[in-house]
């Protein structure tokens, strides 16, 4: 089963870390990504640009309205994602719990099953 691990964290927290702390954080990410690649569980993933570069498109009065900024104001930002293919939601949650943003208290990961084309998961 495929799971999307949505990474939410507090904007700017990395800049507040010392160089040693940043190196440790990114080292943990590299280690997790290597393990998931070697186990065959990693499908993909990407970090996202700063929310200041976001544009939101919505329908207003039947017309598309484009505004700068994310969809909602919040203390956390949608910072990136991982797609994993693993045996259970428990395993996906285990991977998410190891993510340094979660472990260090700077963010959360949302674990969501990815529907297959038939949509039978709904």
UniProtKB/TrEMBL annotation:
SUPFAM superfamilies: Dimeric alpha+beta barrel (SSF54909). It comes from the Bacteria. Residues 1-116 form the YCII-related domain. It holds the Pfam family YCII. Coiled coil: none annotated. Belongs to the YciI family. This is Uncharacterized conserved protein. It comes from Micromonospora rhizosphaerae.
């Amino acid at each position: 089963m495929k799971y999307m691990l949505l990474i939410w964290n507090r904007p700017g927290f990395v800049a507040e870390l010392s160089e040693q702390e940043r190196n440790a954080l990114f080292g943990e990410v590299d280690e997790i990504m290597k393990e998931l690649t070697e186990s065959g569980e990693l499908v993909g993933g990407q970090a996202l640009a700063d929310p200041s570069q976001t544009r939101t498109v919505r329908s207003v009065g039947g017309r598309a309205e484009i505004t700068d900024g994310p969809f909602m104001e919040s203390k956390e930002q949608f910072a990136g994602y991982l797609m994993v293919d693993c045996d259970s939601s428990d395993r996906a949650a285990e991977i998410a719990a190891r993510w340094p943003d979660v472990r260090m208290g700077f963010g959360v990961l949302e674990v969501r099953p990815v529907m297959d084309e038939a949509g039978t998961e709904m």
